[in-house]
Structure formats: C-alpha cells, structure tokens
Request: fold
Amino acid sequence: MSTGYRIQASTGIHRGDRDYQQDQVCMLQHPRHVGCLLAVVADGMGGRSGGRKASDQVMLTARQLFERYDPDTDDAAAFLRQIVEESHLVIKLTAVSAEQEPHSTIAAFLINPVGDSHWVHAGDSRIYHFRNGRMVFRTMDHSYVQTLVNQGEISEEEAMDHPHSNILMGCLGTENEPPVDIHVVPRLVPGDALMSCSDGVWHYFTPEELASTISMLSPREACEFLIQKARARAKGMGDNLSLTIVKLEPLG
Reply:
C-alpha cells in the first residue's frame, strides 16, 4: 500500500438488555484487493423475526455486492447506494411474511486501497471520523430529534434525553424510499480512525469520550470498553449494541 499505514480493525456486538438481538455487524476484507475494507452496521426493527430479517438482509446484500466490487474501476458511491437500494427492496418484499413490518438502519463505510473512504447511512446508526484523538466529522441522523437540533429548537445535550429520540424520519424497508446520505474522505492518513455504530452505543457517549477511547485503546479493546461502559450507563434499560472500529496506524 502506498499510503503508509497499517489497518487495525475490530467489531463488537451485544444484546444489551433486550430479549433478542436485532443488530447485525460485519467487517469484510475484499477477496482480491489488499487494503480494501467494508464495515457495515445495521440496526433492525420490527419484532423478533422482522427486525433480525431486515438487518440480516443488509449484511447479505453488502457481502454479495462487495464480492463483485472493483476499487480500480467501480464508482464507490454508486456501490454503496446499491447496497441501500437493494436491501430496502428485499426488506419490503419480506414484510409479507414477517410478524411485523421489518425495517433497518445502515451505517457503512468503504476504504479503498489508495486511501479514500466512502460512507453511506440511513436512519440513526452513525459513522464517526476521528483524527489524532479528535472528532473530524460524524453523520447526521435521519431522526425527528436530529431535525429539532438542526432547526435550533433543542441542543445536542437535550437530544440525548428527548422522549421522542426513537422516531426515525427515514430508514430501510418503509413505504418511502430511504434517505441515502453519502460522505467522502478523500484521503485517510495515519492517526485516523473510523467507527460505525448503532444508537445503542453512541447514545451514551460524547464525541470527546469516543475520540479519547479510540485513540488510547486498540480497536478490540475499544469495542469491549465502549460496550461495557454503555451497558453500565444504560442501568438495565439498554438497547442492542453494535459497532465497528478501524484505526490507521503509522508504519514503523
């Protein structure tokens, strides 16, 4: 690789205090291109079978399309958009046989071998970009509460405890077409870290806490620590938790 870093990565998942797991997470290495990674988090909703079917479908679609993806010739944004659109369509089709209406969020980021990174998200699962221990950027949730924040009606702090924090304005599997927000990091550098996670994780941390944890710990240690700390802060009321962390370490 010409970018002068080595990649460390880990995933974490926990049922939290729920009766069953509807989150799904995967970290995929490309079968033919070294240094090409795809990380995906999906938070399923819609009853025990419905939510899990929805998040499973996101994972299956992502795997199938990633196997065919060529970083040298394919358009990364179009590839990510295709994951969202195909997952959305199949989830809608499975709704016929599901207990309840299956829906899912998605937060996925792609790292190409030359060092550019492309993101897509729909719903309230998030992707964060940290650089040298500070947050550079995060995705904006497709939620009612995020809309209130954007309009200046409530603060980020007030949003954390808002009674309607679980209302989504868009996700996969609904009647409406899902929102497809694309973000590009033109070039990742040593000292960068990316994290995707469901709201069961990010809800319990400030960006500063996330940045310092990921800076100080290895991806595996950070996943374990954030899950344990979120579980403690949830006080027996926690959601499913899922996350992926990638760190770019300097060579030598």
Notes: The mean pLDDT is 94. Residues 47-68 form the longest helix (22 residues). DSSP finds seven helices and eleven strands in the chain. The two ends are 14 Å apart (CA to CA).
